[in-house]
Amino acid sequence: MTTEFRSEFHTDDNRPYYSYGAYCRLIFGRPMQKLPVAAGFTCPNRDGSKGTGGCTFCRNDAFTPGYCDARLPIGRQLDAAISFYQRRIRPETGFLAYFQPFSNTHAPLERLERLYNEALSHPQINGLVIATRPDCVDKQKLDFLAELARHIYLCIEYGIESTSDATLQAINRGHDFETARKAVEETARRGIPVGGHFILGLPDETGEMLLDRVRIINSLPLTTVKFHQLQILAGPPMAALYEQQPRRFPQWTPESYVDLLAEMVRRLRPDIVLERIVNQVPPRFLTQKAWGGLRSGELWRLLEKRLREKGAHQGDFLYLCTGDSPRGSLRR
User: Fold this and answer.
1) What CATH number is given to the structural domain containing 223?
2) Where are the alpha helices (DSSP H) in the chain?
3) pLDDT at 12 (0 to 100)
4) Residue 4 in domain
5) CB atoms within 10 A of CB 14
6) What is the pTM of this model?
7) In a domain, 9, yes or no
8) In the chain, N or C terminus with fewer CB closer than 10 Å?
């Protein structure tokens, strides 16, 4: 299925950051809802092609919706997702098929082409979002995706997680940051919108480090970013590390986390879409209840309130990353 879309930067919702809603209205002229689907992929550091065990923080079933079932055809999963969301969204909302669990380019090109076309054949799907790892793309796959993106909306979301090679090694990521940089650059060079996913609060990464690393994020040709706090899930090795060495992890309250986000947003390039700031999973997966069950919508409201209290907006401290003349003080 094809759809017309545009690419110029513009926000129209008067928020102090470039929201995903504004981006979707620019591209599609209406709100859009991602519909996660499971296609039966795995990851290279799980299947032995690079390693085993997966990332030390990861538990895919914690964030995979119940209607995602890789045993079902893509079309049936999309039908179930549309049925789920239609009671919760505005009538004019369009839909994007979101290949979410695991690494959704980690397969032969012939299989990828079949699965993506299966999703696009659904009459209510207006485009694709493909979540994957930076080490799961190559020239052949990117050229194929670039050709597909000439006819439909397509975005590739890369799990980058951290810009620190030491952190990536410690969490058993299986690739370094340079791999991520090259994947993002090669994807953007082909005219494909690119998303970057980053986890805040990984072991030994302080708030000051994360603020400083925004300049690295700004150097990447990203269209969207997702930030979210590290959640300690029952089962993966990160839970044991947290229990043994909790001092290696930041102990953020919702207020202190929002304060950090506000300062990161102020340093973030204003043309990058801020798509996510928090992650939520069902409580049964967590080793401890996160922030008293505070919902993501409340965190977004707290962030917007904090930015407005500061008279701040996305990118107003960008000079700290680029060396341009200052437009304000860190201690407003």
Assistant:
1) 3.20.20
2) 20-28, 74-85, 109-120, 139-149, 165-170, 177-189, 207-218, 237-244, 254-267, 296-309, 319-322
3) 62
4) no
5) 7
6) 0.90
7) no
8) C
